[in-house]
Design a protein that fits this description.
Elements lengths: L2 E4 L4 E4 L7 E6 L10 H19 L3 E6 L6 H10 L3 H18 L15 H13 L3 E4 L2 E4 L15 H7 L14 E6 L14 E3 L1 H13 L2 E8 L3 H15 L3 E8 L2 E3 L2 E2 L10 H7 L4 H7 L7 E2 L2 H20 L12 H12 L4 H20 L3 H17 L13 H15 L3 H13 L2 E6 L2 E6 L1
Parallel strand pairs: 3-4, 3-9, 9-10, 11-13
Antiparallel strand pairs: 1-2, 5-6, 6-7, 7-8, 11-12, 14-15
The structure holds zinc ion (ZN).
Amino acid sequence: MLRLHDTATGEVRPFQPREPGRVSIYVCGPTVYGPPHLGHGRFSLVYDVLRRYLEWSGLDVTFVSNITDIDDKIMRLAETEGRPWQEVAAHWEAVWWQAMEAIGVGRPDETPHATDYVDQMVAFISELIDAGAAYVTADGVYFRPRVVADYGLLARQSIDSLQAGARVEVDEMKESPIDFALWKLAKPGEPSWPSPWGAGHPGWHTECVVMSHDLLGDEFDLHTGGQDLRFPHHENERAQASVAGYSFARHWMHNGFVEVAGEKMSKSLGNFRTLLDLTEAHDPRAYRMLCLQAHYRSPIDVDATTIGNAEGALARLDAVARRVRDRLGELPAPDPATIDRFVERMDDDLDTPGAIAVMFTTVTRINSLLDADDLLAALPLVAALFAMTRAVGLVLAVDADEIPEDVVALAAERDAARESRDWSRADAIRDQLTEAGWVVEDTAEGTRVRVG
Ligand SMILES: [Zn+2]
């Protein structure tokens, strides 16, 4: 049984979907006003891996992830660029899907857009006002977290300490610093929707409560997002849901930050690097591998070295796949003991570094069996390797010939040297290739080079 860390309890506990065999997941999606960065890529990959693993395990997964297509940042950008906010949001949403495709993240089953839910959000905010949890001011509608007894659960802090740290913007008219906006009245020239409190737009924290309720119902299995969403976003979503009487998320999951040279990845730090930059400069699968090599709750460092190591790991997997490429159509059942070890690691709070280690132990075993011409013993392991990579969304490049041209040229030169019985030259080239990390094999067709 899968066990996952639950932010609400602070411990790893069994993940028990409300309906056996079915899992509903809500992932807070992007606000579309700029290119997706590495942090976006990480949360998308972490929950894509989870989704694929659950499906691979035989569960029926409903995966919902929203698009925030109205927001102060979108409006400001539209104003700066002098074009309609709808155009800005549509453009950056298209770039988002392009980047997701580049890193192999599957489309959600449902992608609710905030602007399609404004009427439902207005109705929901009215309910919160009627319940005494929200109040109207001259600049909008605010929520009072004090009415929620366990506010601070996800932040794992008391409401008093959260209140002490809360910041008040100069233009906000709140009763208390910890209150948050449900509805913001439009300033002149801003896009707006009608409401009983005046024309304006909804606050971000209300979106996911209303959209998840519409698409997944009163209660769903898993609510996820990056570590930075724990507070205030998820805490505030939970507070509204609890006033509305929704059971809401049964389990909360948050992934760690992306660090670049030890600093948290964010636009403001100036170390911004987009996901598309990364996929253009490197094997697009490398970021998935890098994320898998770390536990999802740990921070990861992204730089040329860590991405290069991930590419090297992929090359080892590809190399073994290429060695057996002629047999891939006739693979036997996967070796059960290997699959058991993999599942054991994945079920332990998605221990993907452990699962990757199982894959590489399998690679080593396959290579020695193939070296010994024991194809019969190797093939169940090959089948297990493919089952494991499929479970986490890694596609092995069986057909791509990724041996660099200069290496191919050296191998050809070695064959020529052997042909002309220049053994010392042939040996020198073999040493040169071996030193560069290649495995050099003599076959009937000549020198074969592969990744070890
Ligand atoms: Zn959300």
